[in-house]
Design brief:
The chain is an alpha/beta fold and 634 residues long. It has five domains: 2-38 and 128-161, no CATH class; 51-120, 2-Layer Sandwich (Signal recognition particle alu RNA binding heterodimer, srp9/1), CATH 3.30.720; 167-344, P-loop containing nucleotide triphosphate hydrolases (Rossmann fold); 350-419, Helicase, Ruva Protein, domain 3 (Orthogonal Bundle); 431-624, Peptidase M41 (Methane Monooxygenase Hydroxylase, Chain G, domain 1). The chain is built from 22 helices and 16 strands. A hairpin with a 3-residue loop joins β2 (65-70) and β3. It is elongated. The relative contact order is 0.06. The structure holds adenosine-5'-diphosphate and zinc ion.
């Protein structure tokens, strides 16, 4: 759905704290150097035994010394006993040197007693060397540590489980404006005020108005909610923070909450700005038990509510959130002063789809024969993301075919790829199967073509698609429709069962190929009975309630068992009637059915015009016997 979200990754300038990094690296370096020093001293000292001064004096008096080294702070000496041992086991002794002692006299005295005396030379530059060594060591270590801490994701080693690892993306400038968002005029209008406010908060505070803190963008996936939020940031020319609700949700209790805190802290630093929370339902789910709450999610949500209440909107932070399931959001989120504005982002209508196609073909070289309007007509129900995808597929196809421009065929084929799955060339059907598929599809097409209220057929094909369909009949509405009458729905039902009817009329068999048709017909019939009030028995009663209006729109039955049984019975009766009607229609027009099926078999794909070329002459002959006009007899 979302081809654009990834490019946020190209901008990893996500509020890293270089200063924090510096101090962490410094600290680690100092600790390491101290450690190295200690270890070094330990190793050096392990060759010596520390003794007390008496031990030295005793050894001296007893003539036990063989060798003595007088250093500035200590005397290191070797006894005869030790010197007799094998070299590996030998250990020298050392003891402190009393301050003020005359070391030169001591040296002379020892020499006279036959002891080898050593007086190490302190090089002039040895202090300098030592300091230099430390500096170089420090430099190298520090460089290494800085690199390492940067690798760890900007939080240092310490922070790797902690606060800011959530994928907060900040874009200084989104570069997207309302021009890039096709259609959605109502949503744009509602967002205009927010832009104005980001431009000039003063104007609002002067008059004493409370500034809006947030708005909720509601709509199906791919309708352009993220795009709109980015466009708001682009129009207002402010930075754009985005995070997905699911990024807050973590295994560790408290992590989500600290991420929320972190996000708002970062935003406050660069205000005015937009914070965009995608899929807010992941954190904002209602806390009551119906949808199964958990502590972590509740904590995160509480933190979010706190932050939204807490920030000073006069600074110019606006929080936008997107969801396709507004009904499960916690009521607290929707209270005044929080996400109290709801902006609906609808599926585009014909004009909207045309505009979307225009936006996405702006940078694409189009051939002369391209007719975007036709494409827009064919793509009823598609969302912006589908259309963007479609255009891109078309461009890829043009490249594959070695062409310089994208033509209408590319667009139409890509439409089939995106909507119906790619054409599957290598499914081999037997001749009998092919005949059956052809009759099945012509069954649909013929019922549609002979009926008054049907949408015109635009294409029939028996080329199998990867989606599993062995063929399909495409109908294209002449204009956008928002209302459907009972007759139109009945026609649709008859068209849907027309495939199976043809199988039975021609071959006297039933095939599995009709499974999808039957499912769709059943769903439609159920809606007519249980939702649209088109049932004879139930009248205006609607026993079904729709859930998730912005997703698939599943309805569940909300009635007594008796009513449910009645609904099922009515659905069955309705489908049977339609099926009988379709069979009758096809039996009456058997010659036409054979003729078109044969033609389809030879061509594999035929257009709506080719189909009508068969039907019109036939209709003129049978003027006196029009297709059965069924009244609303459900
Ligand atoms: P959502 O957030 O609603 O799931 P997105 O905003 O991520 O949808 O949309 C995905 C892509 O679809 C966008 O990047 C854009 O290319 C395309 N798109 C969606 N709606 C529109 C529109 N109204 N105009 C132009 N492009 C659109
Ligand atoms: Zn079918």
């Amino acid at each position: 759905m979302d081809s654009n979200r990834n490019d946020q990754n190209k901008n990893p300038n996500n509020g890293k704290k270089p200063k924090g990094n510096f101090f962490v690296a410094l600290l680690i370096t100092v600790v390491l150097i101290l450690l190295i020093n200690t270890v070094f001293n330990f190793v050096r000292n392990s060759q010596y035994n520390q003794t007390n001064l008496s031990h030295f004096l005793d050894a001296k008096e007893n003539g036990q010394l063989t060798e003595v080294e007088i250093r500035f702070d200590r005397i290191v000496y070797m006894t005869k006993e030790e010197a007799a041992k094998p070299a590996a086991e030998q250990k020298a002794f050392y003891t402190g040197l009393p301050s003020g002692s005359d070391t030169y006299a001591l040296a002379v005295e020892l020499r006279d007693a036959g002891v080898t005396v050593n007086w190490p030379i302190v090089e002039d530059n040895s202090v300098v060397t030592m300091i230099l060594t430390y500096v170089i060591m420090f430099g190298l270590l520090f460089a290494g540590m800085s690199l390492l801490t940067r690798r760890m994701g900007g939080d240092g080693i310490m922070g790797s489980i902690g606060a800011s690892k959530a994928k907060v993306y900040m874009e200084k400038q989104t570069g997207i404006t309302f021009k890039d968002v096709a259609g959605q005029d109502e949503a744009k209008e509602s967002l205009q005020e927010i832009i104005d406010f980001l431009h000039n908060p003063q104007k609002y505070t002067d008059i004493g108005a409370k500034l809006p803190k947030g708005a909720l963008l509601v709509g199906s996936p791919g309708t352009g909610k993220t795009l709109l939020a980015k466009a708001v940031a682009g129009e207002a020319n402010v930075p754009f923070f985005s995070i997905s609700g699911s990024d807050f949700v973590e295994m560790f209790v408290g992590v989500g909450a600290s991420r929320v805190r972190n996000l708002f802290q970062q935003a406050a630093k660069v205000a005015p700005c937009i914070i965009f929370i995608d899929e807010i339902d992941a954190v904002g789910r209602s806390r009551d038990a119906r949808y199964g709450g958990n502590t972590e999610q509740e904590q995160t949500l509480n933190q979010l509510l706190g932050e939204i209440d807490g920030f000073d909107s006069s600074k110019g932070i606006v929080c936008l959130a997107a969801t396709n399931r507004p009904e499960i959001l916690d009521k607290a989120l929707l209270r005044p002063g929080r996400f109290d504005r709801r902006i609906v982002v609808d599926r585009p209508n014909l004009q909207g789809r045309l505009d979307t196609l225009k936006v996405h073909t702006r940078k694409i070289k189009l051939a002369e024969d391209v007719d975007l309007k036709k494409l827009a007509q064919a793509t009823a129900g598609a969302v912006g993301a589908d259309l963007a995808n479609l255009v891109n597929e078309a461009a890829l196809r043009a490249v594959r075919h070695g062409r310089q421009t994208v033509n209408q065929e590319d667009l139409l084929v890509s439409f089939e790829t995106v909507i119906a799955g790619t054409e599957k060339k290598n499914t081999v059907l037997t001749d009998t199967e092919k005949r059956m598929v052809a009759y099945h599809e012509v069954g649909h097409a013929l019922v549609a073509a002979l009926e008054k209220h049907a949408q015109p057929v635009s294409k029939i094909t028996i080329v199998p698609h990867t989606s599993g369909a062995l063929g399909y009949t495409m109908q294209m509405p002449e204009e956008e429709k928002y209302l459907q009458t009972t007759q139109e729905l009945l026609t649709e039902l008859r068209t849907l069962v027309g495939g199976r009817a043809a199988e039975e009329v021609v071959f006297g068999v039933k095939t599995t190929g009709a499974a999808n048709d039957i499912q769709r017909a059943t769903a439609l019939a159920r809606n007519m009975i249980a939702q649209y009030g088109m049932s004879k028995e139930l009248g205006l009663m609607a026993p079904a309630t729709v859930q998730h209006q912005y997703l698939e729109g599943n309805a569940y039955l909300d009635c007594s068992q008796d009513t449910a049984a009645l609904v099922d019975k009515e659905i069955q009766a309705l489908l049977n009637t339609c099926y009988e009607d379709a069979k009758k229609l096809l039996t009456d027009n058997r010659a036409l059915l054979d003729e078109i099926a044969l033609y389809l078999l030879s061509k594999e794909t035929i257009t709506g015009d080719e189909l009508m070329a068969f039907i019109r002459p036939a209709e003129e002959q049978t003027q006196e016997a029009p297709a059965p006009e069924t009244e609303e007899q459900i």
